[in-house]
Amino acid sequence: MQFGIFTVGDVTPDPTTGRVPSEAERIRAMVAIAEKAEEAGLDVFATGEHHNPPFVPSSPTTMLGYIAARTERLILSTATTLITTNDPVKIAEDFAMLQHLAGGRVDLMMGRGNTAPVYPWFGKDIRDGIDLAIENYHLLHRLWREESVDWEGRFRTPLQSFTSTPRPLDGVPPFVWHGSIRSPEIAEQAAYYGDGFFANHIFWPKEHFQRLIGLYRQRFENYGHGSADQAIVGLGGQVFMRRNSQDAVREFRPYFDNAPVYGHGPSLEEFTEETPLTVGSPQEVIDKTLTFRDSFGDYQRQLFLMDHAGLPLKTVLEQIDMLGEEVVPVLRREFEALRPAHVPATAPTHHSRVPEEAR
Questions:
Q1: Residue 194's pLDDT is what?
Q2: What per-residue confidence (pLDDT) applies to 359?
Q3: How many helices (H) and strands (E) does the chain have?
Q4: CB 88 within 8 A of CB 133
Q5: Rounded CA gap, 226 and 90, in Å?
Q6: This protein's superkingdom (predicted)?
Q7: Contact between 313 and 132 (Cβ < 8 Å)
Q8: Alpha-carbon separation of residue 160 from 90, 149, 171, 357 (angstroms)
Q9: Which of 132, 154, 185, 187 could tie 84 with a disulfide, CB 3.0–4.6 Å?
């Protein structure tokens, strides 16, 4: 099973000191977090894509290419690649280039994002969001698999005998996840192509995501990609740990209360009760994460958000060390012991998808 870190790259004041990191500091911190993730034995680092303050990761492939040169094993991914407002041709070429630079250690997550103004900034209409996601991915899927593409659709100029360059490494496109927090159409899309489905369930109760994941599994089987329990599922989560839960709650509370997304809303206690957020000891993180299998079935990737809401880099790196030393080894062992033999233990990697005769 793959475990890793995802970041949204927010630039948020530290509520305990009032200090605001510069954009340069925040970008360097994200690189340090990725390096620490590999050092701690984690599998994946994923960055979001945003084009508005208070976020900095507007160019994920630039950041991931830099991280690729500083790591050896880490899978480099996105927590959102905006399939609605990016040109599919540019996505095809950017991520194929990243594949070559990273030796195949690349996958990506398609999403529509949660920032409405981004649509007009890139000349799109938010009312076309679902249609853009479906049409643009259909073109991207073809660009990675066909040497010469003729295309005509609603949302971009036609293509005649177009070849995207470079071609995917070893002729194998990056593995794709489709991320959604609310749209059954995206679960259907993931199932149709036999791609992965990622439920970033850090904000809403599990019942909401049980419906989306259940739909994806059912349709994955319907399209003939395997049985429902063999569908490739990823989950998000958020944790904050100290040796005892009282210290964790006391230290994290001011960050939670002032977070740009969920601050000034439900209490920390209400949020931890209703969502996957876990604030407590490493054992409490283990116990709660193991319940995800009960809710969603066996799954292949678990990503944790650990650097949100102004937490100092030193604190985040301490969290990753605890995750790698005390939490993930237990989770790997426990999840593996429960997994049926016919269910994939991990998400597809570049190596696993290259035909044996081409290795």
A1: 98
A2: 67
A3: 13, 12
A4: no
A5: 31
A6: Bacteria
A7: no
A8: 16, 6, 21, 33
A9: 132
Q: 166 is written with which tokens?
A: 């470079």
Contact yes or no for 249/268 (Cβ under 8 A): yes
Structure-token pair, residue 76:
């480099």
Residue 300 resides in a domain = yes
Residue at 5: amino acid letter? I
Tell me which residue range forms the domain holding 31: 2-353
Mean pLDDT (10-residue bins), the chain, 359 residues:
95 94 97 98 96 92 98 97 95 98 97 82 91 96 98 96 98 95 91 95 79 96 98 95 96 91 84 91 97 96 94 97 98 97 96 83
Quick one: CA dihedral 279, 283, 289, 291, positive or negative? negative
Q: Give the count of domains, the chain.
A: 1
Rounded to an integer, what distance in angstroms lies between the CA atom of residue 65 and that of residue 54?
23
Q: Can you tell me the distance from the alpha carbon of 290 to that of 313, in angstroms, rounded to the nearest whole number?
A: 27
- Residue 197 has φ and ψ, to the nearest 5°, of -125, 125
For residue 189, give the CATH number of its domain.
3.20.20.30
Residue type, 19: R
Which helix (H) or strand (E) segment holds residue 120: the answer is helix 118-121
Q: Which of 8, 137, 183, 127 is nearest to 79 (CA)?
A: 8
Q: Which residue type occupies 106?
A: V
Alpha-carbon dihedral angle through residues 23, 181, 143, 162, given to the nearest 10 degrees: -70
Q: Are 345 and 300 in contact, with CB atoms under 8 Å apart?
A: yes
The DSSP 8-state label assigned to residue 10 in this structure reads: B
Q: Decide if 135 is inside a domain.
A: yes
C-alpha–C-alpha distance, residues 81 and 258, integer Å: 27
DSSP E strand stretches across the chain = 2-7, 44-47, 75-78, 81-82, 107-111, 149-151, 159-162, 175-179, 196-199, 233-241, 278-280, 301-305
Of 199, 169, 172, 167, the residue nearest 183 (C-alpha) = 199
CA dihedral 33, 186, 226, 105 (to 10 degrees): -30
